[in-house]
Each structure stands twice: as structure tokens, then as C-alpha cells.
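User: Quick sanity check before I run a bigger batch. Here is a single chain. Can you write out its predicted 3D structure?
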Amino acid sequence: MDLSTSALTSKIEAIQGELVEIQSYISRRPEASASIDRRNNKSTDRHRSTTLQTEGG
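Assistant: Done. Predicted structure follows.
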């Protein structure tokens, strides 16, 4: 049981390291800040020119 826990812990640490690398890569991309904008409610559907409205605002 201890060996299995150790192996799982090692895998979790490896995955966490990969997530840090992915997050770092995303944050360095110049389009990342423009594409992730919660205030921009425009539809991503190119066939529609409507905007989406969120509840309460």
C-alpha cells in the first residue's frame, strides 16, 4: 500500500509540474489576455452578430 501511495504521489507531483508549465505558457501568449476577458460577452459564433447577456448585468 505504501508503494502505491508513493507512486501516486510522484505522478501527482509530475502532473502539477506540467500544469505549472502549461499555465506559464498560456500567460506568455500575447493573445491570452485579449481572449480571456470576462467583460467581453460577444458571441464567438461568427455567423451571428448578437452579443450574449449575462444574468443580472
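Residues 2-28 form one domain.

User: Great, the batch can go ahead then.
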